[in-house]
Each structure stands twice: as structure tokens, then as C-alpha cells.
Write a structure and sequence with these properties.
Strand order of the largest sheet: 4-3-5-6-7-8-9-14-13
Radius of gyration: 22 Å
Strand content: 15-25%
Shape: globular
Number of helices: 11
Helix content: 25-40%
Length: 415
């Protein structure tokens, strides 16, 4: 991939020539760290300088990030890389198929953005590959922007074996299912990505409803970074396909267990070439072996976006610091903090059912003031869904300078 980048991608050729580097000197994943870290702004401002001249436009599928951070980016994927990614997906699909009880022919519902990357990729695969009908996964696509009651009704009709969606939406959906359960046909497996699933929401789905819950980690820039096995903590990293580093703000590698910025190299996609690329998420590598026996290294679920900070009274706190205010609240499935004024935040919470709202609100207000000072105004609302971006994702932290036009509110109102 390094040689391909030098031969066919303007950014890497110019950069290596300027630094006096030879592509042949990069022979192992560790040696990718010789390259300067590629920031997201480079991809946003001039994606064509990162595009290989060896991949014809007709052989590209152009996908766009959701732009939840205010910086949407376009990434070209070659047909060859899309097919290879589908094959590589068998690693995590084998775990799902084992839980479903069949290797082929099961039903899967994907709940995502109306402009879903998954739908675009699947359409390209159907157009250019041959998959016998008997071994296909039968898929249903639903919108994360629909009310959970509508989604639940469609799920009951389709009766999928597997449901995949954004963690925040699944929390709201299965809280509704639990309250309205009746004879609802529960899936065998629930998988989530894009935004987090709280420990409380995971416990509701896994322990109360008896459904296996597995996290996956992917991005438009790198399709299959990691997956959960169900037997140990964290995500297994597909390190032979997407080697990763965890670094501090200065680009220095941090120790396992220490949170930092995720830097990934995509060794699969030869169209938009991204090597040593700072993806924008905060993670930590996990030490030790997994009980499942896989030797792939592991990392945490993303702990937040690099952009998710609250700045109040001169103090900046990352979303991970805000998250600790909620960790002991077992009845809160999901939360969102919107800074409305320099000393005022609105906290929206989605709960598992009836809770003591007054006592819960008092604890949350106390937690925020303990962190930011007694002058902070905190308004707590109990909602049935949270504000979403135009792509359906939930931002846990919406800072004061966030454009309100990038956020929408679902139809459900505060309770």
C-alpha cells in the first residue's frame, strides 16, 4: 500500500519526496508511524490529492461522512476494496451466525440514516457480484429518524434474527419494546455502531430481554476496524487490515490502558489512500489476551469524539469526563448535554421507565456543579428520544459553538 501510495497518490509522493523517504522502507505496520499523521482537514479540504490515479472514476464508490463534527468528508472506495471488505466481514459474521444458529439465509434489519452507507455498499455489491439467493442475508432497511413505535411495528412484521443500528437509537427502541413487549418477536442478536450503547441499555437488552449484544466499529474512512466477540471486554482490532495507533495530541504513542486519539491505516482501500490517519475518536488499547482465544489485539469502544468538549468558566472537560457523572445512574439509558449559554447546559436523558425524576435531577445537577462550579445552570429533561444529526447520530456533547442547523429533534417531546 505504501508503494501504491507513492506511485499513484499525489499527497504521498510529494510528502515522501519532501522528507527524503522511500516507500520500500515501510514494510511492516509499525513502520507506518514513519509517516506524518494525516489530519482529517487534509481529506476535507482536498480529497483528490489523496485519491489514487490508478483507480478509474467508474470503479469508485464515493461515500461521505455524516459531518457531525461540522467537517463532512468524501472518501472514494474501489470496487475491489468493497468486495474484499465483504469477505473480511466473515470474521464478525461467524460470531453472529453462530448465535443465530444458521450460517446463511437469516433475516437482518439495519436501522440507519436514510442516506445509509451500508445501503450504498450493498447496492454496489449486488450490481457487481454473484450471490446465490439461498445464501443471501435477507435485509430490511429502516430509518433512524422514524419514531421507535413505527420501527417496532415494522420489526414485529419482519421478525429479524439480527438487528443492527446506532447505539442511541437501540437504547430507545428496546426500552419501548420492554414496556410494550407482549408477543414481540425478539431477535437473537443486536449489534450497534456509530454512537455508543450505555451499560444500562446493554444490560436491558442482554439481561432483561435475553438478546446477545455485540458492538462493531467502522467508519466511512475504514470499514471494519473492530468487533466484539461476546466473551471478553472491548473490540478485537482487524489489525492486519486496519493497523491502529493510539497517540496523544502531539502524536506520541500512549501506553495500553491510556486514552488517546485513534490513528488508523487503511490497507484495504486503494482508491482514497489513508495511512496514519487521525480518525477523530478517543479510544484506549486493552492489555492482555481475550478469553475467546483470538490473538487480534483489543481496544475499548470509542470513548468520545475528539471534538466533544464542554468549555465552561475557562475549564474544558472531554465527553469522557462528563460521562462519569452518569455512570452510577443505572436507570439512564442515554443522555445528551447541550451547552445553551456560557454558564447554562440542557441535559436530556432517556430512562428505562418510571424513575424518581426529582431525585435523579438533583443528583445530575450536583454532579455538573461539582465539576464546573455552583454558578452553572443545569436544566434536566426526560425525553423519549434525543437530538440527532441529519444522519441520525446522537452527539453526547453539543458545545456552545455548534451550529444548531446541524441538529434535529425527533418528533417525541420531553416528558
Amino acid at each position: 500500500m505504501a508503494r501504491h501510495a507513492y506511485r499513484t497518490v499525489p499527497h504521498y509522493r510529494d510528502m515522501m519526496d519532501r522528507l527524503g523517504m522511500r516507500a520500500d522502507s515501510i514494510a511492516t505496520p509499525d513502520e507506518l508511524a514513519q509517516l506524518p499523521i494525516l489530519e482529517r482537514e487534509a481529506l476535507q479540504h482536498d480529497p483528490e490529492r489523496l485519491t489514487s490515479r490508478a483507480v478509474a472514476p467508474r470503479d469508485r464508490l464515493t461515500l461521505r461522512t455524516g459531518g457531525s463534527t461540522g467537517a463532512p468528508r468524501a472518501v472514494h472506495h474501489s470496487l475491489r476494496s468493497i468486495v474484499r471488505n465483504a469477505a473480511h466481514g466473515e470474521r464478525e459474521r461467524a460470531i453472529i451466525a453462530r448465535a443465530v444458529g444458521r450460517q446463511v439465509g437469516y433475516r437482518e434489519t439495519l436501522i440507519g440514516s436514510p442516506r445509509s452507507t451500508a445501503q450504498e455498499v450493498q447496492a454496489r455489491l449486488r450490481a457487481h457480484t454473484l450471490m446465490p439467493r439461498g445464501v443471501r442475508v435477507e435485509r430490511q432497511y429502516l430509518s433512524v429518524l422514524d419514531p421507535v413505535a413505527t420501527t417496532a411495528a415494522r420489526l414485529a412484521e419482519f421478525a429479524p434474527h439480527v438487528v443492527h443500528g446506532y447505539g442511541s437509537y437501540l437504547a430507545a427502541l428496546f426500552a419501548y419494546v420492554r414496556a410494550q413487549r407482549g408477543d414481540f418477536p425478539l431477535p437473537r442478536v443486536v449489534t450497534f455502531s456509530s454512537d455508543g450503547l450505555s451499560d444500562a441499555a446493554r444490560a436491558l437488552i442482554r439481561d432483561e430481554l435475553g438478546v446477545l449484544v455485540l458492538g462493531t466499529y467502522q467508519a466511512v474512512e475504514a470499514f471494519k476496524i473492530g468487533f466484539e466477540c461476546g466473551q471478553g471486554a472491548g473490540l478485537h482490532i482487524n489489525t492486519d487490515l486496519y493497523p491502529v495507533r493510539v497517540v496523544d495530541a502531539a502524536g506520541r504513542d500512549v501506553a495500553p490502558g491510556e486514552a488517546g486519539d485513534l490513528v488508523v491505516s487503511n490497507l484495504v482501500n486503494d482508491a482514497t489512500v489513508l495511512l496514519n490517519y487521525r480518525l477523530g475518536d478517543t479510544v484506549a488499547l486493552l492489555p492482555g489476551a481475550c478469553a475467546c482465544g483470538r490473538t487480534l489485539p483489543r481496544m475499548t469502544q470509542p470513548l468520545g469524539r475528539l471534538d466533544d468538549w464542554l468549555s465552561i468558566g475557562g475549564r474544558r472537560v472531554h465527553s469522557q469526563g462528563v460521562r462519569t457523572i452518569f455512570t452510577s445512574e443505572a436507570d439512564i439509558l442515554q443522555y445528551q448535554v447541550v451547552q445553551q449559554e456560557p454558564w447554562k447546559v440542557a441535559v436530556s436523558v432517556l430512562t428505562r421507565g418510571m424513575v424518581d425524576e426529582q431525585a435523579t435531577s438533583q443528583r445530575l445537577v450536583h454532579g455538573f456543579r461539582e465539576r464546573f462550579g455552583d454558578a452553572l445552570q443545569v436544566e434536566v429533561a426526560y425525553v423519549t428520544d434525543l437530538r440527532r444529526t441529519s444522519r441520525g447520530k446522537v452527539r453526547a456533547i453539543i458545545p456552545l459553538d455548534e451550529s444548531p442547523d446541524s441538529i434535529r429533534v425527533n418528533a417525541s417531546a420531553p416528558t
